[in-house]
Amino acid sequence: MAAIETDAEPTKVLEFGLGDGTYCLDIGVIDEIVDAGELTRIPNSPDHVEGVMDLRGRTTTIVDPKTLFAIDEEGPRERIVVFDDDEIDEGGTVGWMVDEVFQVRDVAPEDVDQATTVDDKGVNGIVKSDDRFVVWVSPDVEEIGDLDAAELGAEGEEAEA
Q1: Averaged over 71-93, what is the pLDDT?
Q2: How would you class 35 by CB atoms within 10 Å of its CB: exposed for 0-12, middle for 13-18, buried for 19 or more?
Q3: Where does the record locate the signal sequence feature (predicted)?
Q4: Is residue 92 situated within a structural domain?
């Protein structure tokens, strides 16, 4: 019985906005959240790389997850979610430029629908929350980058419905 209870422990996630949608990440992969600052563009970088910024002496690569997930909606782009170097394998400090940060909350395993996203790279599941859906995404840029942008756009629209 105790093993079942352990398996059912909730996961803390950070909810954030990209365009009109709400997304979340496991809080365990996040180092900090900072205000968006001035970025230095990198010539010939991939489309999803916005640039770099100095974050307390660390050169931090800033990625636009809207490009990764084919999200067309504009937003205020106010915050940067910086990932823990030890938790993701991107070869340096990486942050995502998000429109806004909403909250940290617990997500119980029974509230996550993985059936519709079982083969989708970059998406861990859809969190059912009251009258809305929250897309639980992965910070693994290389894994997400392997996806076809049109395929991602279609999934995002379904998740938002």
Answers
A1: 89
A2: exposed
A3: none
A4: yes
Closest CA relative to residue 17, chosen from 134, 124, 116, 126: 134
Q: Provide the β-strand partners of residue 14.
A: 25, 104
Q: What is the dihedral of CA 40, 144, 58, 81, to 10 degrees?
A: 90
Residue 120: give its domain's CATH number: 2.40.50.180
- Residue 81's domain spans which residues? 10-153
Between these two residues, 37 and 119, which has the higher pLDDT value? 37
Domain for residue 5, yes or no?
no
Cβ atoms of 80 and 34 within 8 Å: the answer is yes
Residue 40 DSSP code: B
At 73, the pLDDT band (50, 70, 90 cuts) reads very high
- Segment 81-97 shows an average pLDDT of 88
* Number of compact structural domains in the chain: 1
